Amino acid sequence: MTIFALSSGPGVSGIAVIRISGKDTQAVIKLLTDHKLPKPRVATIKKFNKIKTFELIDEGILIWFPAPQSYTGEDMAEIHVHGSIAVVRSILDQLSKIENCRLSEPGEFTKIAFQNEKINLLKAESISDLISAETEIQRQQAVKIMSGRSSEKFDSLRAKLLKILSNVEAKIDFPEEDLPDDIIKSIKIDSVNIRREIEKILNDQKVGERIREGFKIAIIGPANAGKSSLLNYLSNRDVAIVSEIAGTTRDVIEAHLNLDGYPVIISDTAGIRESKDEIEKKGIKLALKRAEDADLNIILIEPKSVDFTGFLNDLVTEKSIIVINKIDLGYKNINQQITKFNPILISIKNETNLDELIDRIKDKLKNKFTTTNETLITRERHRQSLEACLQNLKNFEDKNSKEDFDKAAEDLRLATRHLGMIVGKVDVEEILDSIFNDFCIGK
């Protein structure tokens, strides 16, 4: 089957790029251009016509990539035409009329590239992350993973495990033959060293995931403290409805921000208070859950808050910033229990001390995005595979020390398999759909 899709962004643009890949790509090109194939990898001006009537659709550039020297590893072509909706629609319509030619699924070009061993899973994921990058730090991380440094690290660890496994299996296959003492000793030493390396990789404070997904900030506090106003100020637009009526916000409202190059997801939540309203109670429950999952909580109160102390002890942690709003109304009689937390005094209405709050947020961001280790984990599936590998290594060490070599070897095989799943060295069919469905169509 030959697939096609618009690979550039939808809508009106100066140029649109339509990608075609599959065994019938040559035939498709000839049908559209009614000419011989251009030289491989040379941008060639062509007229693109309707298949049956030969009516001219547009004049543009055709680039021909014969297999296996293409992105997908199959015969592939790119059509560059003027980016009007009518031109793109007409060419896509003509392609859909060709036998054994269909619109691609999300990520299908990259999936084919992986299946043809042009790239590994880590590089495939980094391509998706690069396309989705909104901040400089996200771009840098995606490019770093794409360069292959992470793949090399995981491949190296897997090769070391395979070497240990071969020595253990030699011990099983030739029980009556004594393996040299240095080999027996190296099995124990090498497995411990690999385990410690993996523990070090896992101890990364989840920086890679934070960069990829965004640093999560929750604005929480009692009703009518100004949480929605603060969200709107930080977002520089009206994201949430602001009202003097307490309890206006009942659901979680999110805004994605770029704060000094750091990706941030900031959430406005329902005011925390005693309520008999079932919908508001659900909103409060969501607020507390969002606070629990957040990387940073901005606990926003105002000087006259009387229902704050009830949840103070539960919410004030190292990942919290206490902020007292509405100081324009007076703040001399602030509860002493609150002042011991070094709160920031602000007025959103008068834009007082908001720079101080933003600086405090930035300091928290820098600390959370800083790690002494090289970031190798960017997705939850990487972490889960490494954690499973680590557990199997611990099981191996335990059984190996008891000289239960048969069972120890199986633990080592499982550890090796979990490492291989990160880069796609073993059968990973069950996770491919979830990975490539996150791609845009045409990539």
Structural class: alpha/beta
Rg from C-alpha positions?
Answer: 29 Å
User: What name does CATH use for the topology of the largest domain?
Assistant: Rossmann fold
Task: Identify the CATH class of the largest domain.
Answer: Alpha Beta
> Uncertain regions: pLDDT < 50 for 5+ in a row?
241-248
CATH architectural type of the largest domain: 3-Layer(aba) Sandwich
Count of distinct strands: 12
Number of domains: 3
Give the distance, in angstroms, between the N- and C-terminal Cα atoms: 17 Å
Main β-sheet description: 6 strands, mixed
Number of helices: 16
Q: From N to C, what is the helix and strand string?
A: EEHEEEHEHHHHHHEHEEHEHEHEHHHH
Q: CATH superfamily membership of the largest domain, which one?
A: P-loop containing nucleotide triphosphate hydrolases
Describe the overall structure:
The protein is an alpha/beta fold. It has 3 domains: 2-104, 2-Layer Sandwich (Gyrase A, domain 2), CATH 3.30.1360; 125-204 and 376-436, Four Helix Bundle (Hemerythrin (Met), subunit A), CATH 1.20.120; 211-368, 3-Layer(aba) Sandwich (Rossmann fold). 47% of the residues lie in helices and 17% in strands. It is built from 16 helices and 12 strands. The strands form 2 sheets. Strands 3-4-5-2-1-6 form a 6-stranded mixed sheet. Strands 8-9-7-10-11-12 form a 6-stranded mixed sheet, with helices on both faces. The longest helix has 25 residues, at 149-173.
